[in-house]
């Protein structure tokens, strides 16, 4: 045993420097963190040079805030609530119900090691990252007299506001909370103590949190309360105790690597259009998932689609409980690779009926709902075993879908980081930073962690991130392409090249935002070429695309109000291209063409154009735990792709279509494997799959809410005819597919197969499984 393990370990260590050497020219390849045992997290002491380029006063606006500089003590005794909240709110930020969204007041609010006592909610303003020391995560402790909705509140209700809140829950973007222990155990067990009120949408993440709650049998505590919203990603979370580990209701979400210990109910699912849970551990609870089901229409919307892959459940009487017995589709369930130990009921109904007996066993592939295959438009309602997906070995680790937490470099010393500002980049949104960034990357990639201080870095030609690069931003550092290089849609040009073509090595990007300054009809925003020899070694975490809709982009209400059809309103040719030799781990990647202006209080709709969302030609492995919205031809296009795990993928069709209908204002480019549009198909494809093999889609929400900005098509689900197309030379399986507004949910070779009217399950229609 031991020699094998050593060899394996050696192999992993040896592969990194080799890979780095291929990609970069620096002299001393980085080979691990050198922080001393007692050092704080690098983020505390690195030079804080981040700025907000488009803030009215960038020279005084403070992006990085250490709560101790605002008077917080972290001594566990003093009430730190006011100090923390002033660290968050200072600098005319976006909140207090007077501002619905803004991109010009970003903040990182850092908590050094310690215990912070609070007596009322910490309010997470728009565009805020709350970050604890990742080496020893600080504790935020609610005092016994705590009063308010939750220890951390991302969307406060306005007192006496008749339900009004600070932010619109479906437009509540750009938040992250990570590296904390949230402790509510000093509050009375019967109080409704809550860790986080996380009513958010896209571009949001929770990472590396532990919520400690009462384990008394009458506990009323809950780890998360989320009553509505859109979005989003959360992962690497532990919930101990509580009546509910998490109480959640929201359009769609992806949850990965979450553990629930000693809760009454681990997950209460109030409503959804589709949620994917991946790698879930449940120990010593009464109920694992309590899912409110039964609503077949929008007015009685309940949990429409729950998909659980790779779960370990022990010593828990019921794994999944639905509120109503299902004899027809009313709450689609998919359970894949769920290992039960001492779980008498695998699936049951609140009235005590057992749908699937448990015990100590593994549920390989089980479903409740409508099952389809091939081009057969008829379905079977199933409560039983369903076809198991093909899971290529390259996507798995120990038999489960591989997952990798975001790199935070917590063991690296400050001296191991290189700041792009210290190396001469300005990040002011005006200076051309192409040369400064390129020389910094060339000089330090593979030898240092590249720190992109907060700011907007303008580039005017292709920036190449060499294989071997590990880079991290601050409050979503913006890399913005601009100018004539990206002006010609007949000659598209890459804005950011991730690894040169054919390159091999690791590559890590987190906390970055890719943006264009319009018009940029010829921009391929990111071309991903890198191939990592180690599993999941090349990836993006909490890194998003935001095309238009923000100050500095010239693609805002002033230039491109809703209904405009102007050549100045092109945002991109293609957002993200995974090329054939690449592999990629993408987690929390929102590839958004803005549908409204985040920096205009009216939040009016925009008309701007991005040709294509995500094109993957990769042979894999590729993990996509992300979303793409509003691109003209398609949101996801898999062309000759192999070995992909995709869950949950969420998309929306552009609101202006069919005027014009796709491909207009772009044209079909066969060199980019563009899809075709059969007659009647006058809107973008959400997912288009051509000659691709071993593709596993586990949770998809594809929505079409408008026709030329009007919503009258919605009630008849006729906003577009088709939305997902698979060709007959591909091999893939799709579980938990929900659509809204499309007549057909799935087509084969461009002809509709699955009609939404057979699968109505709330506002959305849900297909539990379709296999080729
Ligand atoms: C919230 O935003 C959505 C999407 O933009 C919009 O349809 C809805 O009307 C907004 N809700 C409120 C209460 O403003
Ligand atoms: C959000 O959820 C609350 C509680 O269920 C509900 O009262 C409210 O109407 C919801 N708001 C929206 C905009 O869906
Ligand atoms: C899962 O989360 C825990 C923290 O809760 C973390 O230690 C572990 O590395 C994570 N595992 C994966 C595969 O991300
Ligand atoms: C904000 O939007 C409103 C309504 O569309 C528009 O009249 C106004 O000019 C916009 N403001 C700016 C600064 O563009």
Automatic annotation (TrEMBL):
Keywords: Signal. CDD domains: GH55_beta13glucanase-like. Residues 1-21 form the signal peptide. Gene3D superfamilies: Single-stranded right-handed beta-helix, Pectin lyase-like (2.160.20.10). Residues 64-290, 417-482 form the Rhamnogalacturonase A/B/Epimerase-like pectate lyase domain. Pfam families: Pect-lyase_RHGA_epim. This is Rhamnogalacturonase A/B/Epimerase-like pectate lyase domain-containing protein. It comes from Fibroporia radiculosa. The lineage of its organism: Eukaryota, Fungi, Dikarya, Basidiomycota, Agaricomycotina.
């Amino acid at each position: 045993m031991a020699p094998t393990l050593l060899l394996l370990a050696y192999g992993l260590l040896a592969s990194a420097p080799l890979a780095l050497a291929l990609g970069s020219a620096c002299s001393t390849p980085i080979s691990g963190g050198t922080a001393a045992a007692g050092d704080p997290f690098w983020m505390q002491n690195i030079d804080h040079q981040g700025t907000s380029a488009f803030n009215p006063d960038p020279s005084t606006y403070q992006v990085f805030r250490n709560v101790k500089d605002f008077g917080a003590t972290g001594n566990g005794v003093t009430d730190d609530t006011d100090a923390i909240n002033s660290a968050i709110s200072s600098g005319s930020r976006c909140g207090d119900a007077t501002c619905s969204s803004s991109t010009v007041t970003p903040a990182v609010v850092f908590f050094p090691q310690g215990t912070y006592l609070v007596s009322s909610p910490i309010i997470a303003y728009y565009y805020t990252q709350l970050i604890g020391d990742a080496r020893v995560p600080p504790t935020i402790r609610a005092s016994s007299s705590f009063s308010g909705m939750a220890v951390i509140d991302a969307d406060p209700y306005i007192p006496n506001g008749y339900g009004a809140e600070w932010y619109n829950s479906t437009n509540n973007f750009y938040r992250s909370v990570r590296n904390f222990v949230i402790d509510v155990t000093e509050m009375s067990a019967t109080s409704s103590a809550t860790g986080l009120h996380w009513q958010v949408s896209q571009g949001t993440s929770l990472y590396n949190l532990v919520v400690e709650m009462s384990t008394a049998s009458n506990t009323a505590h809950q780890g998360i309360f989320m009553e509505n919203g859109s979005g989003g990603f959360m992962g690497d979370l532990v919930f101990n105790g509580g009546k509910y580990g998490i109480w959640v209701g929201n359009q769609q979400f992806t949850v990965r690597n979450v553990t629930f210990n000693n809760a009454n109910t681990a997950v209460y699912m109030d409503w959804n259009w589709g949620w994917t849970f991946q790698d879930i551990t449940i120990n010593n609870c009464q109920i694992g998932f309590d899912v409110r089901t039964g609503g077949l229409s929008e007015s009685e919307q309940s949990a429409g689609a729950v998909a659980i892959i790779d779960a370990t459940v022990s010593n828990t009487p019921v794994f999944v409980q639905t509120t109503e017995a299902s004899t027809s589709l009313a709450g689609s369930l998919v359970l894949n690779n769920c290992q039960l130990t001492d779980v008498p009921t695998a699936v049951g109904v609140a009235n005590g009926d057992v749908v699937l007996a448990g015990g100590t066993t593994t549920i390989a592939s089980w479903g409740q709902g409508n099952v389809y295959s091939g081009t057969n438009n008829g379905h079977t309602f199933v409560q039983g075993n369903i076809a198991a997906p093909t899971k290529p070995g390259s996507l798995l680790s120990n038999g489960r879908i591989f997952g990798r937490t975001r790199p935070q470099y917590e063991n690296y010393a400050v001296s191991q980081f290189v700041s792009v500002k210290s190396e001469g980049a300005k990040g002011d949104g005006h200076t051309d930073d192409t040369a400064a960034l390129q020389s910094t990357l060339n000089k330090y990639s593979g030898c240092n962690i590249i720190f992109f201080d907060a700011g907007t870095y303008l580039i005017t030609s292709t920036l190449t991130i060499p294989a071997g690069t590990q880079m991290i931003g601050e409050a979503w550092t913006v890399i913005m392409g601009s100018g004539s290089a990206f002006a010609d849609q007949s000659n598209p040009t890459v804005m950011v090249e991730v690894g040169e073509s054919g390159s091999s090595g690791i590559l890590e990007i987190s906390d970055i935002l890719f943006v264009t300054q319009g018009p940029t009809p010829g921009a391929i925003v990111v071309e991903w070429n890198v191939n990592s020899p180690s599993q999941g070694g090349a990836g993006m975490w909490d890194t998003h695309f935001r095309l238009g809709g923000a100050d500095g982009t010239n693609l805002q209400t002033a230039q491109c109000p809703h209904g405009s059809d102007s050549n100045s309103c092109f945002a991109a040719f293609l957002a993200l291209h995974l090329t054939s030799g690449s592999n990629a781990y993408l987690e929390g990647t929102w590839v958004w063409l803005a549908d409204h202006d985040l920096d205009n209080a009216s939040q009016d709709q925009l008309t701007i154009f991005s040709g294509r969302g995500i094109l993957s030609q990769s042979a894999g492995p590729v993990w996509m735990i992300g979303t793409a919205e509003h691109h003209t031809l398609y949101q996801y296009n898999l062309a000759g792709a192999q070995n992909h795990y995709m869950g949950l993928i969420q998309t929306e069709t552009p609101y202006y279509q069919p005027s014009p209908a796709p491909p207009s204002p772009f044209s079909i480019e066969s060199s980019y494997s563009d899809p075709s549009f059969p007659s009647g198909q006058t809107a973008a494809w959400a997912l288009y799959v051509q000659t691709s093999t071993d593709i596993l889609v586990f949770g998809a929400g594809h929505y079409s809410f408008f026709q030329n900005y009007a919503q009258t098509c919605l009630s008849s689900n006729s906003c577009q005819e088709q939305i997902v197309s698979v060709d007959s030379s591909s091999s893939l399986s799709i579980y938990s597919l929900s659509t809204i507004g499309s007549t057909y949910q799935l087509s084969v070779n461009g002809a509709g197969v699955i009609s939404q009217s057979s699968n109505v399950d709330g506002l959305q229609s849900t297909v539990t499984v379709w296999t080729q």
